């Protein structure tokens, strides 16, 4: 197919020269007639007729095809052209044969010149048809050589050699010209095919891709039009020429400044990102373009890539990386980055660390899906409270934070913390359930004294922990003393393991007596720790530390073993041991208690395990199962510090408690507040109805003892009776011997007979209370 097109191009070039060539042949024929004259006779007339006929045939062919646009030519047309050229060559060869020899010298020069000229001109004119050129050339050469041979002059031998060399050069040059022309045509056809392919691909690209090609003139008007480009610009294809692209971008995007600057400077640009529109309707484009080299006035050519989906995906990834998936609030990373930026700029502010109180109860009792709804509701309330400049985030679990960077907030940080506590204490409705959560807040200031964001977070957490230790539902502002307390806490935790390994812990025992007869009924085992460097560390400090660092199980097992072994030396007395909720919830706890009782040879009824009300808030069902297992084992269970925590009557009915220990805060208030006396009296009566004994803790005065007796509390424990003491001193106390030396810092005047001096009361009318 390509050969046919090449033939058509060659024939077309030859056809354009045909009138000139045929005219030259006729003029040359006329000159031959002038040179030969009447001497040519019939042969000259025949020759001129043949030449005229060939010229006419050529002119007729040109005339017939002058308006015809043919893309292809057959081999037949090629051969026809070759035959025509061969006949012309034969005609001029005959002219040399017929009239060169008889002609006079002057006429010989004319004939030789005409034949040679026609040979050279025709060979190059026919170069597009290489075989026609060769046939034409060598037929003329053959006639000329024959004429020179007939002349028989020696000089013509040299002329013949020159003629052959000249004809060879002409032929080679014509062939080279034909090859070059063919190569150029092939290259042009290849370029056209490539352009067609590129055009097809571009058209397909513009019709199916999200991108669009564009081209403008120097003024910015669009000169390349396509349906895709019109769709992107929101106009019709016919009106694209009215659009001035730079101004169009400037009017619709606030991010067009880099593009306009590059356009004004004539510099190429690549992947300049523009946002058009806002919200859900926003779209993002990436523009690349460069000036058109050599364009009149300086046009531009480029592409618009619609990257909306990719940008939305990127925004979603950024959202996931910087926001909490559950609540949509800023996450820890985003919050810390904002705090870091504020501190780098020296901006003042506050960080509020917020932790929900007893959130685990909701998860355990209502399920994690309900817990998630509660967290979303908490997030919504915090966002509703936030002011301009506040960033609310979720740090993880039930921990939230508020970073306050506003220059003139409506509420002071402490007022905001109080409002947060109030709002989060309001009930949260999840379906038919009405749930209650509280919150504690720790506040830390962003100021030059804080070295980095990590220290800021630590300060807020220390304040939060102090708020929780202080009873929850309150806020605390960080102070340097909290840092010292934190370091002390860390030191205690580090020393705990060493203290357990070196036997630094010792049990002290505090007697419990009958409130009427003052007879000793049992003792409570209390762990004491005397550290060689830290000195005496209180249980209120080392027991929470043991719970935090996971040593409470080891410490509790030590207390249980020592207490059961000591009970063997205290015949007839029960021994009470405090049990941490973490220790009780250990799966093998009941079995471990049974093993300790067997090894110590102690009857289960003499062991009293004291638990606090916080146990019921962790995992009530699991706690109930373990307490029933202990009761089945024969162990007595006491509820310690009753009245200071949850104090649910439903739990009292469900849990198998043998004893209620009334907290010392109520006992201390008995002589001062009538409502305290009414509360304690109610507790005692309720316990009696439920079949439980009651123990009044912290009795320190005879007045408090008298009131406790009046309300019929079963047992008494406190400094009025005795302070905690080591086992040897306890034996002396029980035997009635003086207790010498310091006993839990009690002064030496408190002697065992102090109890005997308190008059026992034998007649009580509790039913009248």
TrEMBL record:
CDD domains: EAL (cd01948), GGDEF (cd01949)
Transmembrane segments: 20-36, 42-64, 85-103, 133-149, 155-178
UniProt domain EAL: residue ranges: 489-738
Keyword field: Membrane, Transmembrane, Transmembrane helix
Cross-referenced InterPro entries: Biofilm_reg_signaling, EAL_dom, EAL_sf, GGDEF_dom, Nucleotide_cyclase, PAS, PAS-like_dom_sf, Rev_trsase/Diguanyl_cyclase
Domain GGDEF, first and last residues per copy: 347-480
Protein name: Bifunctional diguanylate cyclase/phosphodiesterase
Natural source organism: Pelomonas parva
